[in-house]
Design a protein that fits this description.
Chain lengths: 496, 136
């Protein structure tokens, strides 16, 4: 009989099962729990209308302040209905994954509603979202600390969950349980392999499994907050990653794998070893020959990443990499501390063309130091690299929601150096509405203008741009908020 | 245009286009030809029969389906022409859409294919930008 329920809250990917839950299932099972997985993220996408899902996603992504009244009621009733599953007396533990900051709003609603039920079991919440803070300028408490303070949950797991959760289930203390001072797991090879036996693969659009090869990043990009989650970069051994892929291929008959790593090639040596192992195994064993993988990749120059690495990736089954290029202006990338040149991008594209490795380029429009000339560099590069788009090497180009600043990133911390007053242009959520006195022409409106110009050019040249509808809708929501609040401000001034 | 094939067992290779035949020396299991024109059709015969060589055109590793390459036991036939890259891109887009099945969810199409201009949204955003500038 099931005695533990694991819930995946929106907003996460709907294409494949939650790796967060799969990674803690072995911990529950090793403590003699029988688990059931409820993927509310998937069920929401399945059971709401497309336009409702859009609005809920915008709300989760913080680009929409509030849901319309009717939709909020519908969402609340839907969550209450789903909670019927956990009110069974046999359920001792409810574990909820709050994957990121984009899960925080719905998790607040979820736990508020859960409080009104008769559930008496232990409520544990974890995931990166519990360390997030939606009101960073006014409140220093993390979401997890808020949940504890308001007695909406029994325990919060901060940081990496595997060891903390195991201790919690055994009644032991461990850093990261209920206190936001987690310690990092040093040796990732010691963690149990994720367990997907409780997922119904047929419900997911894309049958693939996630794999984690490393945690953390080898760079300290100014706009990125990954260092808050994982201060130190840790890499699994090539042998361990290889064994997990082979085991999961044979156990679940899944051929497609996606690395969750911030970057798969953080350790070039280990990455080459892994691809060598997999390429050799695929060449020898027919059962393995269809294995493929995708992941996030860092661009480096030829000295650091020799052509052999790309060749091995091809033979190992690399089907797509996502690369944070961020800007085609070398000057802007230097300011971001991306640490690669324009020549490195050219070399990377040449190698990917040679070995048919498709790229998703992640871009940022309107970094604080981005001048009109830097924007022109973006436009020029979109024209120059058209052939790589035509040939599928730049498989997709993602321009995003324009530059936004997360709390505690290096950029946030050096806001004074950039003369960025986070609160000054506070008509919107502070994350998007910043302006730098060093580059005052680049306000939110100019960033949106540049974003739209890049969208138009990219579309006209045939680039594929994923999630554009969602992104443009979010930008429009931000603009609407901007206008409404600006009007309100004027109205208040007029009244005064 | 540079055309190259590779296979670990490749022994001989000959290219035919516009009534011309050119053999190539096999170096490190590969054969390379530099064409000074863009032929409509290229045939590459190779030995041994029955292998599937990798094919590069202008240093791009070519997907046979996307390039509409026909493979026979002893040769590959590559339709090139002036619009080779445009056709390649078109089939790529078509393939991405087909991979989603019949009547796919528009959200999924946007996520996987991403080839929609979203005119209405763009117009609305531009209108808002104009309003805001005017307001300022």
């Amino acid at each position: 009989m099931k005695n533990a329920i694991l819930i995946n809250l929106p907003l996460t990917e709907t294409l494949y099962p939650s790796a967060s839950l799969a990674s803690i299932i072995p911990i529950f099972k090793s403590n003699n729990y029988q688990v059931e997985v409820i993927d509310l993220n998937l069920e929401l996408a399945e059971e709401f209308l497309t336009e409702e899902v859009d609005k809920i996603y915008s709300w989760c992504e913080l680009t929409l302040d509030n849901l319309e009244f009717d939709l909020e009621i519908k969402l609340s009733q839907w969550l209450e209905h789903k909670m019927q599953y956990i009110l069974d007396d046999s359920i001792n533990v409810l574990a909820v994954s709050v994957f990121s900051i984009y899960s925080v709003k719905i998790s607040k609603l979820f736990f508020k509603l859960l409080k009104n039920t008769k559930f008496t079991g232990l409520i544990i919440v974890g995931g990166n979202g519990v360390s997030s803070n939606l009101n960073s300028t006014t409140n220093n408490k993390s979401h997890g600390e808020d949940l504890l303070q308001n007695e909406l949950v029994d325990h919060v797991i901060f940081g990496e969950g595997e060891q903390s959760l195991n201790c919690l289930l055994q009644g032991e203390q461990h850093p990261g349980i209920d206190v936001n001072t987690p310690i990092q797991i040093e040796n990732l090879d010691t963690l149990p392999k994720p367990d997907y036996t409780d997922f119904d693969f047929d419900r997911y659009h894309d049958q693939r499994l996630l794999i984690t090869g490393s945690r953390g990043c080898v760079r300290k990009c100014t706009f990125c907050d990954i260092e808050l989650t994982w201060p130190k970069f840790r890499q699994r051994s090539a042998q361990s990653m290889f064994e997990e892929i082979v085991e999961h291929r044979l156990k679940y008959n899944i051929n497609k794998f996606e690395f969750t790593d911030s970057l798969i090639n953080g350790s070039v040596a280990e990455w080459i070893r892994f691809n060598d192992l997999l390429a050799n195994a695929k060449a020898k064993d027919k059962d393995l020959e269809n294995i493929s993988y995708t992941g996030q990749f860092i661009c480096r120059d030829e000295q650091s990443q020799k052509p052999i690495m790309y060749e091995l990736m091809h033979y190992a089954g690399c089907r797509q990499i996502t690369v944070g290029i961020e800007s085609f202006s070398e000057s802007v990338r230097n300011d971001m501390k991306k640490k690669f040149s324009n020549a490195a991008i050219d070399y990377h594209l040449e190698q990917c063309a040679k070995w048919a490795i498709p790229n998703i380029f992640l871009m940022i429009v309107g970094y604080p130091t981005e001048t009109p000339a830097d924007h022109q560099s973006n436009l020029d590069a979109v024209r120059r690299y058209k052939i790589y788009s035509d040939m599928g090497v730049i498989f997709m180009l993602r321009w995003g929601l324009t530059m936004h600043i997360y709390k505690d990133t290096p950029l946030f911390k050096s806001a004074n150096d950039y003369k960025i007053d986070i609160l000054k242009d506070n008509n919107l959520d502070a994350l998007y509405s910043w302006v730098s006195d060093l580059n005052p022409g680049l306000d939110f409106l100019e960033r949106v203008r540049r974003r739209i110009e890049l969208h138009e050019l990219s579309y006209n040249l045939g680039y594929h741009q994923p999630n554009t509808r969602n992104e443009l809708q979010s930008i429009l929501s931000l603009l609407n908020e901007y206008t409404v609040k600006q009007n309100k401000k004027t109205w208040i001034l007029e009244q005064a | 245009m540079i055309i190259k094939i590779f296979h670990t067992e490749l022994r001989n290779a000959e290219i035919q286009f516009d009534d011309k035949n050119e053999k190539s020396e096999i170096k490190e299991s590969s054969a390379t030809w530099t064409l000074l024109c863009i032929p409509k059709l290229v045939e590459i015969q190779f030995q041994p029969f029955g292998i599937t060589p990798k094919l590069w055109i202008d240093n791009f590793l070519i997907n046979f389906w996307l390039a509409d390459v026909q493979q026979q036991d002893h040769k590959i036939i590559i339709p090139i022409g002036n619009n080779f890259f445009e056709k390649y891109r078109a089939r790529d887009g078509q393939g991405r859409l087909q991979s989603l099945g019949l009547n796919p969810d528009p959200i999924l199409v946007d996520k996987i294919v991403g080839r929609n201009f979203h005119q209405q949204l763009v117009d609305e955003i531009k209108l808002k930008l104009d309003e805001k500038r005017h307001f300022n």
